[in-house]
Write a structure and sequence with these properties.
Elements (H helix, E strand, L loop, with lengths): L2 H17 L3 E3 H7 L6 H9 L3 E3 L2 E2 L6 E3 L3 E5 L4 E6 L9 H5 L2 E3 L6
Antiparallel strand pairs: 1-4, 2-3, 2-5, 5-6, 6-7
Length: 109
Amino acid sequence: MAAFSVAAEARFRSFSQRCGLERQRLDKWLWHARVVKARTSAAALVQAGHVRINGVRERAPGHSVKAGDVLTIGLDRTVRVLKVRGFAERRGDAAAAQVLFEDLQDGQE
């Protein structure tokens, strides 16, 4: 990890502790993590059945995700497997979004 990533992660951890966020709506998390460009797109992706939480297909955009959940997301031409590491109250830039998840497919493609 680069020094910037470590600093961003430190800021994120203190933010999560202050806000006490333990769960978040699935569509909101997908949007905050920058998996999709709009929250409505995240809701449509979930309703279409393209998202699994811990191997179980989820069709409710309002379903809660918690830290440690593994999301399998079927996008246009790829499948992403992400482990939820935390939450954000607002959608940030790409560096802030990378702190929210761990990509379980790094180096496997």
